[in-house]
Amino acid sequence: MATAKSKKTALQSVKGMRDLLPKDQAIWEKIRKVTRDLGEDYNFMRIDTPLVESAALFERGVGESSDIVEKQMFSIKSKDDIALILRPEFTAPVVRAYIEHGMSHMSQPVKLYYIGSLYRYEQPQEGRYREFYQSGFEIIGGESDPLYDAQMIMLAYRFLEEMKIGKLMAQVNSIGCRQCRPLYRKKLVDYYKSKPACKTCKRRLLVNPLRVLDCKEKECDPIKKGAPAMIDSLCVLCRGHFKLVLEYLDEVKLPYMLNNSLVRGLDYYNRTVFEIFSGESDLALGGGGRYDHLVELLGGKPTPAVGFSIGLDRVVMMLDKQEPAPANRKEKRKVFFITIGDLAKKRALPLIESLRRAGVHVEEFMGKDSLRGQLAAADKKGAEIALIFGQMEAFEDSIIIRDLKTGAQETVLLIKMVESVKKKL
Ligand SMILES: [Zn+2]
Ligand SMILES: [Zn+2]
Asked: Which one of 94, 121, 209, 307 has the fewest beta carbons within 10 angstroms of its own beta carbon?
């Protein structure tokens, strides 16, 4: 037991988690607004799924050999014996909801969007947290139409454009299908066998060979560069699909480049995968791809799908670097309500309430400062009008309206207060 004398240390937020402070809220509100606006403009419907899901969902959906399932899941101790975790990504939960709520009976495709927090147990670094945020968009059902792939790349691009992030470039690749990928996988394994790749790569070759292309180790760089490219092993159908995706992107003049080593960390993708980058940074700001087998994998009927998400923490980080935080929304002219004395204070509350109900932006000060102190506070808050309610005014059912810019003031009856204040705003 701690001794009574031991000094209590202040508690801090958990490693990799942080507060979004009032000063950060303007940018986060902008992000929420862009998500909502694009969702509505492009006919997506909002969905929210729980923070907690069964571990099985991700073991089956994301793949047991993915980094997420191998070592990044935040598991929860539950009282019954079900393995629960804090969601590490959105696509599997959204697909679970699609199946669970019979959305395959709605008109297809079903277009869904979301925004929220995710949890991964990994080493925190710049732009990477253990609690992080994403906005995302998914098109589930309908045809495996390359038009949808192109639309999703465009929408991801548009999202970042709306956030005023410059020098955007999409990187795209096709990782083939169940027919052509095994052939490529074999080629890749054969190629890597004789190469001095790192330990992680050696292990990945056994469990999930495509992931060697994700390797960030310097020693593996030259090996990666010489590796066979998936794009040369695509079957006729995958080749045709990918060609159309690129043609659509050409059609809308979206800047993109092919990246042979882009595979994304998750097992469920097939055919098109993409990531979007900005200028100097080598961190992807968003990414996604086609996942035609996930619905089936999670117990639904075979259903094509494509989607992406945007890493919002990175977007915020980029904006902090690029330019000063965007200006707050245009503030309404502020009114500062000053009371002097106990009687006035007691009667002030309903008056302030009536102003707020009339749409007036009121700041109040309920401390014991002098009139002068309160006027100084009003000035600090950027108020343009002060309402002064003292003993005398309370007695006479009146209030003083002072223009803080000109110093001009008048006394009005309380019943005229709201109307008189509104005239001055
Ligand atoms: Zn194929
Ligand atoms: Zn490696």
From this structure: 121
Pair 120, 152: CB distance under 8 Å: no
What spacing in Å lies between the alpha carbon of 261 and ligand 2's midpoint? 12
Spacing, Cα 108 to ligand 2 middle (Å): 41
118-165 tens-digit pLDDT: 999 988 888 889 999 999 999 999 888 999 999 999 999 999 999 999
State yes or no: pLDDT of 343 exceeds 90: no
Cα separation, 382 vs 385, whole angstroms: 9
Domains of the chain (ranges plus CATH)? 22-174+253-322 (3.30.930.10), 335-424 (3.40.50.800)
Q: What are phi and psi for residue 225, nearest 5 degrees?
A: -60, -35
Distance 59 CA to ligand 2 centre (A): 24
C-alpha 269 – ligand 2 centre gap (Å): 21
- What's the pTM value of the predicted model, to 2 decimals? 0.83
The per-residue pLDDT of the chain, averaged, comes to 89
**Ligand showing the shortest atom-to-Cα distance for residue 235:** 1
Strand order across the 409-413 sheet: 362-365, 335-339, 385-389, 398-403, 409-413
224 Cα to the center of ligand 2, angstroms: 8
